[in-house]
Design a protein that fits this description.
By secondary structure, the protein is of the alpha/beta class. The protein has one domain (4-146, 199-243): TIM Barrel (Alpha-Beta Barrel), CATH 3.20.20. It has helices at 17-26, 46-55, 73-91, 107-115, 155-165, 168-171, 182-196, 206-212, 215-224, 236-243; strands at 4-12, 31-35, 57-60, 97-98, 120-121, 142-143, 198-204, 232-234. The longest helix is centred in the middle third of the chain and has 19 residues, at 73-91. The mean pLDDT is 97. The structure holds zinc ion (ZN). Zinc ion is lined by residues 11-12, 61, 65, 101.
């Protein structure tokens, strides 16, 4: 089998991340949890973050979750630097992964992330089966999100998930049945990476999984990873260190 990596990442630091971590443990998977300090009311306590760090990776996700490309560089720098310092205090270990809120990154923000000492930064780019060529612009494969349609009153928003996926179906040589449901798509992508080698990067938000009722779907997809016992199961930083 060609080298095959499985990684997962989870944004925002909601308390339901503990449920996610239990699921990952159950299926022998690793996760990077990107925690924002001041974003959610129902957020992980510092003790819970420290507990999570013992089993998985903790990454920074700023303090207040701003769009880093829209604020002044001094404030952006503080969000990037201080969130790392805070999490290093909380976990007692080095924080090496960062995720810019909503994937908002440009060359100036990328520079601030590098300057702050991070080794890897994850974007929100989807449908990639590799790591790209920049460890501070790490793409992903699949987001835990309603598919093929999103529940929305706006027709345009409703069709957005399938619309975004369609161009990748021929490029990634996915079977058409993959468009049937979110688990079908996620598992087709997993099977494809197993064939050609590369990275399957699953990401999401525990609060969104709860909101859209996707826990059972997620568990089905995590269970499918058991077909591939030889795949390397890694955190985002471990992935970057292994490949770059
Ligand atoms: Zn976020």
């Amino acid at each position: 089998m060609k080298p095959f990596w499985i990684t997962t990442s989870w944004d925002d630091g909601h308390r339901l991340d503990l449920r996610l971590a239990d699921l990952l443990d159950q299926y022998d998977l690793r996760g990077t949890f990107y925690v924002a300090r001041d974003l959610l009311d129902e957020r992980l306590s510092e003790a819970e973050i420290a507990g999570l760090a013992a089993r998985h990776e903790i990454g920074a996700h700023t303090l207040t979750h701003p769009g880093l490309t829209e604020i002044d560089p001094g404030t952006a720098r503080r969000e990037i630097v201080d969130s790392r310092a805070w999490l290093q205090d909380v976990t007692g270990s080095a924080i090496t992964a960062f995720c810019p809120p909503r994937g908002a990154i440009n060359p100036a923000v990328r520079h601030l992330i590098a300057d702050a000492g991070y080794e890897v930064a994850r974007t929100v780019e989807l449908y990639r089966l590799d790591v790209g060529d920049d460890r501070l612009m790490l793409p992903t494969t699949i987001n835990v999100y309603p598919f093929p349609l999103r529940p929305s009153s706006s027709i345009r928003a409703r069709f957005q998930p399938i619309q975004r996926a369609l161009p990748h179906v021929p490029t990634l040589r996915l079977p058409l049945w993959a468009l049937r449901s979110w688990p079908a798509l996620a598992i087709a992508l997993l099977d494809r990476v197993a064939q050609i080698g590369g990275v399957w990067h699953l990401w999401g938000h525990s609060w969104e999984i709860e909101h859209h009722g996707l826990w059972a779907d997620l568990e089905r997809v995590l269970a499918a990873t058991r077909r591939y016992p030889d795949a390397h199961r890694v955190t985002n930083t471990e992935l970057a260190r292994a490949i770059f």
